[in-house]
Predict the 3D structure of the following.
Amino acid sequence: MRTSQSLFLLLALFETPQPSEHCPRKHGYFAHEERNICDKFYYCVDGKFNMIICPNGLVYNEHAGICSWPDEAKRKGCTSEEVFQFECPKVNESIAVTHPRYADPEDCQFFYVCINGDTPRRNGCKLGQVFDDVAKRCDWSRNVPECADWYKGRLTDQQLKDLEDPPTPKPKATKISKRRNRPRAERIDEDLVR
């Protein structure tokens, strides 16, 4: 944890409460008032707030004062299953993979990694790629039949082609340094000088 974050957490613990809008105390990090809003929190300085939004898939962790995975934050109403609306399927232990992957049923670009087979974490493929539920990895959309049209209307055919096979950048013209043309000092043999 950064020093400034630690200082604000300390101030929040020992100051007399002086609540203001979204700030139960003048200084600190505070969860959103609505318990089911998991990905937003407030950073308060002198009673003035800034709303911070966690990156997609993360929630505010009240104990650490940062965004983290829902299973690490351990907040009521903000469990992995509630945030992602996805439950890891129960699998036969004889063929189980430690952290199996499953396609997001709503979005071809995303998938879930089930930590130890039971805690979902949402991950995504890079732009232009989709999750191949058979190969269990990201691939170009044209190679995954059930998601071949995922980017239609989102990206042009040319944009998809450029993502898959980026155009080679033209080399920049370089300036020849004048230093190379300067005469160099001759090396003096120290034995001759003595």
